[in-house]
Amino acid sequence: MAPSPSASSTPPPRPNLLFRQLRGQRSPGEFAAAVRRAAREIGERVSCDARYVGRVEAGEIRCPNYAYERVFLHMFPGRTLTDLGFAPRAVVRGRGARGAGEARGADPTYGNDGSRARYPDDRFTGSSDGCAGDGGNSDGGNSGNNDCSSGNSDNKESDVRRRAFMTSGTATVAAASLGAAGLPLGGVAAAHVPKGRRFRAAGEREVCAVEEAVREIRLLDDRHGADGLYRRAAHPLRTAYALLDAGTTRQAGHRTADRLYSGAGELAISVGWLAHDSGRFDDARSHYAEALATARMAGDPALEAHAFCNTAFLARDTGRPREAVRAAQVAARLARELGSARFLSLLALREAGGWAGLGDHAGCRQALVRAHALFDRGPADTDPEWMTFYGPAELESLEAQCWSALGQWERASRHAQRAAGLAMALTPQLTRNIALYTAELADDLARAGRPDEAADAGLRVLALLDEVQSSRIACMLATTARLLLPHRLAPGVTDFLDQHAARARA
Predict the structure, then answer these.
(1) Could you tell me where the Gly residues compositional bias lies (predicted)?
(2) Does a structural domain hold residue 368?
């Protein structure tokens, strides 16, 4: 069969040998990490990975977007894009360049610059080739830096991505929206339905996608914190509730419908936690209430107990300790039928936090004793999947928070020290938790009158903030810095204060 004229007229991509030489002996993954570090040095955020480096070297990316251009020119000062093996921007701009990309069978999941496609407010406006036009800004690789707005005509998607996206149906719904927003989803395919389109009834595949989105959000939060995830994670949540409105297929059965309700509720809690941890307390309260309503409609006591558990934590953090105690107690009543001692232990700690906020030493101690006794019973098959974060380090951290609320700084610092040490030893992959526990330690040490040790802990947290984005941690460090100001002439304290101030300015 003879090739089509459009295909035969399109030259194959030419490998970028100059860029490959610049990588040197580093692996694509190592070079991608160097690109991300260079981006942070100049205030950019690019989602560079080994796949992107491979596409550049293969010649699939003829010209990077503006964000990547700034990073590459920072990495290799004195060079131009042409010196790096790229084609001039004017050559690849416009519809002609986009047509060539289509002839090569462009991947609709990714922009021409290697970044994941973004879909502003479920609406599609115009088209672009991934290299911004005159005055445009399509730095898709700059994920997390720009909020997409339906009114911003500069944020445009290519016709190829738009057609593929709009015709893909609702196959892998929730995970799809998360992927479209720029978050990695492993092997989960991307799909999403624009606003105004009706969803067909959900089946097994859609329900699995909702459950996978929950797992991905929790995994990313554990590693990177909530700030960069919250707004993007709201997309799959809206999609999951649209699926609830559409119902499930008759073939799916009641079990699938129950899983869809539970999955949507757990997704609401996960997004609520991202709002909570990034300081959006009103949003968090709304998401938790949504999860509670979903749990009651579905008759799901496990989901309801989880929602009350998070509500108790939020109430403690927002100065409503009595509500925290009550919500934890209600959750415990619901959780007793689930057969999970670890879940009951966590709820006892939530209650202890409320009592500490009320200044009730006796109530706090009793709840802490109960929490330790339940924890010592060990894990069980009935423990909820979402409780993987709750281990010895989290137990120590939550107890440290109780003693801190009661003003017992030395005791709090001992528990915070144990939490940080256990996290490093047992779960080194949970970067966000390590940063949180160490930030708690710095605060407790500062209040206990040990400024040098507090500054040392603070420096360890600062070293992790390139990987972790959490308003909670940032606020704790800011408080520690204020507490250490009277000791600013001490060498270690000076170093911490200078680095903290430099990061704040940046």
Answers:
(1) 132-143
(2) yes
